[in-house]
Amino acid sequence: MSKRSLSLPPEIAKFDYHSQLGYVALRAFFKVCDDWNTTFAEQCKLLKVGLIELEQLRKLPAKPLETEKLIRIRYYVLIYKETAKRAGSVDKAHREIRMARTGQPFLGKPPIHLLINGGMDGIAAACKALTGRVPEPVSYTHLRAHETGRNL
User: Fold this and answer.
1) Cα separations (Å) of 63 from 10, 18, 19, 47?
2) Which among 76, 82, 103, 152 is least surrounded, fewest beta carbons within 10 Å?
3) What is the largest CA-CA distance in the chain?
4) Strand, helix or coil at 150?
5) Mean pLDDT score, 1-13
6) Residue 125 main-chain phi, psi, to 5 deg
7) Is 133:114 a contact under the CB 8 Å cutoff?
8) Radius of gyration from C-alpha coordinates of the chain
9) What's the CA angle centered on 49, arms 44 and 53, to 5 degrees?
10) C-alpha span between 120 and 106 (Å, rounded)
11) pLDDT in tens, 71-127
């Protein structure tokens, strides 16, 4: 299988790899948030940032992101893709993220609650429970494929 060449917008393509990765990761994050109908307060907690920083990130700057933010986004993207695939639609997946679940690790709370309030351990536990696995390290190609809707 040959790899496709992915092109970035011209204003982003001139930046270094880590800045491009930050751009693509943030695009994916805000797509997931839009589809999950998250509030600004929830988005702040998901990324562990304040409202001002969230608004700065929303402008999609081409700048490197901290490793923890990239890891968080990778978990959310994996959960998003797997729940949408299993549920058959983004709307059904949205309901699945918001619906209370019994048992470990949710204990009667919806998955979004654990993603928001559980720290990295809670995010990893929710990901494992929802997808059966934890993600591989963040890769630019994978995040770019998510953004474009392609399978590489």
Assistant:
1) 15, 7, 4, 16
2) 103
3) 48
4) coil
5) 59
6) -65, -45
7) no
8) 15
9) 100
10) 15
11) 999 999 999 999 999 999 999 999 999 999 998 999 999 999 999 999 999 999 999
